[in-house]
Design a protein that fits this description.
- Helix content is 51%, strand content 15%.
- The protein contains 26 helices and 24 strands.
- The strands form 4 sheets. Strands 1, 2, 3, 6, 7, 8, 9, 10, 11, 12 and 13 form an 11-stranded mixed beta sheet that branches. A 6-stranded mixed β-barrel has the order 16-17-22-19-21-20. The protein has a 4-stranded antiparallel beta sheet with strand order 15-23-14-24.
Length: 858
């Protein structure tokens, strides 16, 4: 062992240390082997000297320590840089945390790229849902589809005591198999349960299981009350399960359809079809096969199809389709903000580097290499970027929940939005790149001959810094122009959208949804009595001037439409008849909503269920579509299937915006509540008030509870809030772009001011000489303004070109405004012009006040 220790000492210790240490050990080896090993280890650790890696680390630590010391002596520079970077990095991390799960990551299902939606394709290329019979034929006859399922909407009320309305979906028994997921507790639906009369089974989401049932595992197999009917819970989905097909669903019920049921026909297109394509089949190949199957169905049932083919779309593409352009535009905007923040910090670095050039020159003259100086700048950039990254994470943690709360409720993968490892990786990469940029740009801008210039006594600040800073300012201005134009387009679009005539008076309206479910409302008469009692009780409340009910509400997100056939002149194929939004309403609906009756009359109390004369009102658009240029009064129409009775048109009312303020005007028809034949258990109560409608919301709810406390009352909102919700995506984009544009403008002002202030300081002798030779103050001002104007002009030109690219992603958010709207472009340029003049003002005044004699002496 002693010989081994001596060999180790001779190999790893320097020669001038190994001889005395080995000699000492040899002399005292009689103290024992343990002592020899211990002394050898101590010698190796303490005397061998640092390794190359340790030396590099020690040097790096010293560089960082020195960088911190430098930044402590420049607190204004450090704080400004860290805050600027923190805000930009925080915004980037927050937006990326949304983009990553929604657009970048694959859906959380096995082989998610094989999941598709199947639609019918109309002649104009639009898509429609499918009837159950068509879905059944596609599923049974297709050789391209591995498995498939039908999906329908469902909003049940859970519980008899303290009922709760939840969002759900009615699905085929193969639904979760098609997605490739299984319940974590209990079991999946069985094939035999997917039959009429056997479908009283449900599966709960993990969130609903925890919230409503306290996470009780014994709930599986038990019966719960849903809509007043007992249903058995057979399973609970995993906490991580995210249903992108029905993003808000918390409960799923097996569909239980049969082709013998009247609502499961080919023309009852209220279902979506989800499918999984076989591994060896392409999407295009599957669509070709389904097109052929569709053609065979059209040939077999020529009067039951208006479509001309099938359409297959990947689920990943479909669920992100409406959100992708806006999210990509926001991503571009936040990257631009990060770019402008980096430009501004680098500009500050350049300004500071000018003041430190004498220091750099002295260090170079004393033997410091160019790499040593650059390494120091790299350490300073790393410290700044790291502090900015930490500040950015703090900003992101605060901003992300606020951002998520403003996102549309149907945004897919919303539950997966959080500060993930991918977002942290983006922040870390950004920090590293920032450190390099903030080190290399000032380093490249420095003159290589600082020592020679120091010895000659010439001015240290050179043209490289000025060119670099000017370039960065041009970038800042161009980014500001792009963001300002985008914000301006969104603002003008929102203003025009809110000016659209909705077809009714939205002011002073309170809306809420009321249920009538359970055994006590098993027939139409009991439902109508319940509705009458509600209207009569609410009508006498203080501040209420009108109250009505309707099965669906304009701008409420409802989709309930029927085919409308001219009874006296039916088309050869009834499926080619136009569709109209179904409104089943009492006589007071039009007066409460203030929808004008343009011709004929509105409903009266005489239009009751036992009336032999069935009547209907149609919108102006529907009347023009069926009877162009002629009077619709007295015409007869049929609503729905071929067995539906004829109805006489007694009036034409104004068009209303049903799907959205920005949607194409649709057609509506209105039937009296008592004449429709079946009551709607879920209706919207609409209350018109004299003052703020929100002030009567609590009293309205109490009144309904006093009539029947077991019925849930949900979606309480003023009509103004409903309209705001329908424009929420545009509002969010506007707020973010306006915030980004405001930050860009402020940074642009700072950049232009910094360049001009530095230029005035560098050209003090020149300006003094000009003044001494008789230059007027306005000429000095023009000199400064021309320099700032040139930078702004270049930035504006580049920004206009970039705005054309950026606003392409905003097309889906624009309404009544073109991406190249001249008014918005002109206003943005004018704003930048005013800001440029403001940024030039202080440097120009400072230049005018330069004392020629003082300037020439120095």
């Amino acid at each position: 062992m002693t010989r081994l220790c001596i060999w180790l000492l001779s190999q790893f210790l320097p020669d001038h240390l190994s001889d005395p240490v080995i000699g000492d050990i040899v002399e005292q080896q009689a103290r024992g082997t343990l002592w020899v090993c211990r002394e050898t280890l101590v010698a190796l650790v303490q005397l061998r000297g640092p390794s190359r890696g340790e030396a590099i680390m020690a040097t790096f630590v010293n560089d960082v320590r020195l960088a911190v010391r430098y930044l402590r002596h420049a607190p204004a520079f450090a704080i400004t840089s860290i805050v600027t970077l923190g805000l930009a990095i925080g915004a980037t991390a927050a937006i990326f945390s949304v983009i990553d799960p929604v657009l970048l990551r694959p859906l959380p299902y096995a082989d998610a790229n094989r999941l598709v939606f199947v639609w019918e394709r109309d002649r104009d290329g639009s898509r429609t849902n499918l009837g159950f019979a068509t879905i059944n034929d596609f599923a049974s006859q297709s050789k391209s589809l591995e498995t498939s399922a039908a999906v329908g909407s469902w909003e049940p009320s859970i519980g008899d005591v303290d009922p709760e309305r939840v969002s759900g979906a009615r699905v085929s028994a193969t639904y979760f198999k098609t997605l490739g997921v299984q319940p974590v507790i209990g079991r999946d639906f069985l094939a035999e349960e997917d039959q009429p009369g056997h479908n009283q089974v449900v599966i709960l989401s993990h969130q609903l299981w925890q919230r409503r049932f306290g996470g009780d595992r014994s709930i599986v197999g038990r019966s719960i009350s849903i809509g007043g009917n007992p249903m058995t819970v057979v399973g609970v989905m995993p906490e991580s399960f995210d249903d992108v097909v029905s993003p808000t669903a918390e409960i799923w019920r097996v569909l239980g359809y049969s082709t013998t049921q009247p609502f499961a026909c080919r023309t009852c297109r209220h279902l979506r079809m989800l499918a999984r394509v076989k591994p060896a089949t392409t999407i295009a190949g599957a669509m070709t096969e389904l097109d052929q199957l569709h053609a065979a169905l059209v040939k077999q049932f020529p009067t039951q199809y208006a479509s001309v083919g099938a359409n297959l779309v990947r689920v990943q593409d479909e669920v992100t389709r409406s959100f992708r352009p806006a999210l990509l535009a926001l991503t571009g905007a936040v990257v631009l903000v990060l770019l402008i923040a980096v430009s501004n910090v680098v500009n500050l670095q350049l300004a500071r580097a000018v003041r430190r050039e004498e220091e750099f020159a002295i260090r170079t003259a004393l033997g410091a290499s160019r790499w040593r100086v650059t390494r120091q700048l790299l350490a300073e950039g790393l410290v700044l970027a790291a502090c900015g990254g930490v500040a950015g994470l703090m900003v992101a943690r605060i901003a992300l929940p606020l951002l998520v709360s403003q996102l549309p409720s149907r945004l897919p993968r919303a539950s997966a939005i959080h500060l993930s490892g991918a977002a942290l990786a983006v922040v870390g990469t950004t920090v590293a790149l920032l450190a390099i940029v903030m080190a290399l740009v000032p380093g490249r801008a420095r003159d290589a001959h600082l020592g020679e210039r120091l010895r000659s006594g010439r001015r240290l600040a050179g043209g490289a810094q000025h060119f670099t800073r000017s370039t960065l300012v041009v970038i800042e201005v161009s980014v500001a122009v792009m963001l300002l134009i985008s914000a301006g387009l969104l603002a003008r679009s929102l203003v025009r959208l809110l000016r659209v005539d909705a077809g009714f008076d939205a002011s002073h309206l309170l809306t809420l949804e009321v249920d009538a479910v359970g055994s006590r409302y098993a027939d139409n008469a009991s439902v109508y009595v319940f509705h009458d009692r509600i209207r009569d009780a609410v009508r006498v409340l203080p501040g209420v001037v009108g109250v009505t009910l309707t099965n669906q509400m304009p701008l409420g997100g409802n989709v309930d439409s029927y085919g409308v056939v001219d009874f006296d002149n039916p088309p050869s194929n009834p499926e080619l008849a136009p569709y109209g939004d179904r409104y089943v309403v009492p006589p007071d609906f039009f007066s409460t909503m203030r929808i004008p009756v343009m011709r004929g009359r509105a409903f009266t109390t005489a239009d009751v269920a036992d009336s032999a004369h069935r009547v209907v009102l149609v919108s102006a658009a529907l009347a023009e579509r069926l009877w162009p240029g002629t009077d619709a009064i007295g015409r007869h129409i049929r609503l729905g299937g071929p067995d539906a009775p004829s109805r006489t048109v007694i009036g034409v009312v104004g068009n209303v915006k049903h799907a959205g303020l920005d949607a194409t005007t649709t057609m509506q028809w209105y039937a009296p509540e008592r004449q429709w034949g079946s009551s709607d258990s879920q209706v919207m109560l609409i209350v018109r008030t004299a003052n703020d409608p929100a002030s009567v919301a609590a009293s309205v709810r109490r009144t309904i509870a006093s009539i029947d406390a077991t019925q849930p009352v949900i979606r309480v909102a003023t009509m103004d809030q409903v309209i705001a919700q329908s424009t929420a995506q545009r509002r969010l984009a506007l707020v973010l772009f306006a915030a980004f544009a405001g930050a860009a403008l402020l940074l642009s002002i700072a950049g232009i001011y910094g360049v001009l202030a530095g230029s005035v300081a560098e050209r003090t002798r020149e300006i003094g000489l000009r003044s001494a030779l008789g230059a007027a103050p306005r000429e000095i001002v023009a000199l400064v303004v021309r320099q700032g104007g040139a930078l702004a002009f270049l930035g504006i030109v580049l920004g206009l070109g970039g705005a054309i690219l950026l606003t392409r992603f905003l097309r889906t958010l624009l309404f009544g405004v073109a991406p190249n709207d001249p008014a918005t472009l002109s206003a943005s340029v004018a704003i930048l012009g005013v800001i440029t003049l403001a940024a030039c003002a202080i440097p120009a005044i400072r230049a005018v006040r330069i004392d020629p004699s003082e300037a020439l002496r120095h």
